[in-house]
Amino acid sequence: MVIFFLLATLPLLTYGQGQGVKGQLYWVTGNQMPGPEREQIPRQGIAREIFVFELTNRSELEEEDGFYKAHTRLVKRVFSKPDGTFTVRLQPGRYSVFVKESKGLWANLFDAENNISPVTVTRGKFVWITISIDYSAAY
Prior knowledge:
- This protein is mainly beta and 139 residues long.
- The chain has a single domain (18-138), classed as Immunoglobulin-like.
- It has one helix and eleven strands, in the order αβββββββββββ.
- The protein has one helix at residues 2-14, and strands spanning 20-31, 44-45, 49-54, 61-64, 67-70, 74-79, 85-89, 93-101, 104-106, 118-121, 126-138.
- The longest helix has 13 residues, at 2-14.
- It is globular, with a radius of gyration of 19 Å.
């Protein structure tokens, strides 16, 4: 009887677990250069649509004015909350994460192999990423 109960409740115990990507989007604009008597403008969370593609290399992108069109398989789309936080449940693997903007997809990080905005998802874990949407900022 106890074994039956444990087996019957196992799906409930593991519900909510899994793996994927969690993170926060920040909108960064204006002059970000430090200076005397200059107040830093704080980053602000922002709601945006997030696109997760299979791992995408720079050679698999079309680029125009810093925005992209990916030629790899779209895996998932989600929206961030107004504070910029988001969660994407994914199978273990390697992915590229983009933010949808009016001019196209946006990302600003590359690894040593020229993969854009790469993340690695491992079984049973969520990886945390922070994306600063800073194409309107000056550094």
